[in-house]
Amino acid sequence: MTDQVAPPPLRQDAAHRGAVRVASVPAGHVYVRHCADPTGADRVVRLADPRPNGAPSTSQRWWPPVMLDPAWVDAHHREFDVFHLHFGFDAQGPAALGELVAALRRHGKPLVYTAHDLRNPHQADPGPHLAALDVLVPAADGLLTLTPGAAAEIAARWGRTATVLPHPHVVEPPLIARPRTPREGFRAGVHAKSLRPNMAVLPVVRVLAETLAGLPGAELLVNIHREAGDPAAHAHAPEVLAELEGLAGRGLLTLRVHDYFDDDQLWEYLGGLDLSVLPYTFGTHSGWLEACYDLGTAVAAPSCGYYAQQRPCLSYRHDQRDGLDAESLREAALTAYWTRPVWRAPADERAAERVRVAAVHRALYTELLG
């Protein structure tokens, strides 16, 4: 724990007396929402995300996070007791984050940081994110992360101890408890989304198309956002789309080009797969993997990052330095085809896990407030 000005006594209205008020960045993200006890027994109140300039009044958008502005901290420091950062600082350089830390220190507010990403999946260059972590990790009064591997990396790089907590459920409880719909055949899926920098879609799809071709009842489904075909979009990738269309034309895969899924569409898609293959070359943790665990869809995760430590899954060798090991991906796909593994979160265990996660957050906040 770093030296800091002692936090002021809690001053709360009657409705929130005894609660810990948290400025959580962001509050509306599904991970953060599911770190709360659904009954309110943790007595943690998270401030609503301030609406960014330009966002309509009906929008749920939280980015860019207004709370990262030191001026916001100066203006609202009496409204929260703890500042907890999760996501959304991609555009903040080390100097800006240093100013945020200084504002929190100025008002005696503890900083908690949950290290979701030790390598940002949205940034091809690891330098900016590492520079941000070089400010946040040493400055944090409390550190959390999701896997032992990430905690070990934090200890080795910064000499800090991070508490390891499991990722809470992503899908809502009624759907977690719903039985999977029986289906014939075997469907593997690769979702290319908008071709994030950490995705190597074509090498993965080529191996899967070759591996599944000719296997009775096997189908490869590839989804990609419509932006890949839009010359005006940042994600425009005509060469990727052309090759996928060519493979689809040869009957080696089914290609779906569409806009972003909403939650219901995403859960329907994931629940209709027997295997979801993550085509990542770098990263750390995955909410997608957690959603698959909620729904009982097996995952083939790359060897980069700490995906395999999050939940039971198949693994194949794939990283930015060495590229794709085709044989390990082929073996993972065939294992899924022949054994049909189903690793699924029991609804009662997910509920109990969420309560435990909430309790650890409450205990950390309370400890930091003395």
UniProtKB/TrEMBL annotation:
Domain of life of the organism encoding this protein: Bacteria
Listed name of the protein: Glycosyltransferase family 1 protein
Species assigned in the record: Streptomyces pyxinae
